[in-house]
Amino acid sequence: MEISGTALILLILLVVSVLFLVGGCGLTCSSRSGFTFNNSEYQYSNPNVYRQWYYYKCLEKDCGGDTHDYDCLEKCHLKAYRMDMDSIDVKDWVCMPYAKDEDAFYRCLDSVYADYRYP
User: Fold this and answer.
1) Virtual CA dihedral for 63, 69, 70, 75, nearest 10 degrees?
2) Number of domains into which the chain is organized
3) Are residues 54 and 92 in the same domain?
4) Does residue 35 contact residue 112 with C-beta atoms inside 8 Å?
């Protein structure tokens, strides 16, 4: 069975386009509300035990234990990161217009922290 040159080119283009679509989704696909889940704090070292406990309590209380709700996971991540802050941060002032709506406030903080690439 011999494959013609045109069929071979079409097959290669099909494989490349499928790989591009599948691989490109990682760059463009995001959670439904725009949160950018970042687990860098826990990636290379053990986290602070109290912060980790607070994070998992937030998952239990706010997210109902759903570890696939990335919006809620990021909100808990930010809450745990900010739990021991003694004073209001500059990033808090940026997001103060959203202070009455907790989800909008943490979505704003997420975008502000994402600009700094931390936490």
Assistant:
1) -20
2) 2
3) yes
4) no
Residue with tokens 């070292």: 45
59: which 2 tokens?
Answer: 């998952």
pTM: 0.56
Q: Report in angstroms the alpha-carbon separations of 21 from 11, 24, 34, 93, 113.
A: 15, 5, 20, 39, 29
Give the pLDDT confidence score for residue 82 in this predicted structure: 83
> Does residue 56 share a domain with residue 7?
no
Q: How crowded is the C-beta side of 67, counted as CA atoms within 13 Å?
A: 3
93 and 74 in a common domain: yes
Q: What is the pLDDT along the chain (119 residues), one digit of tens a residue?
A: 566 778 778 778 777 776 666 555 444 444 455 566 565 655 555 667 888 899 999 999 999 988 888 888 888 988 888 887 777 777 788 888 998 998 898 888 888 887 665 55
- Domain carrying residue 1: 1-30
Q: How many CB atoms lie within 10 A of CB 68?
A: 7
Q: Which three-class secondary structure state does DSSP give residue 118? A: coil
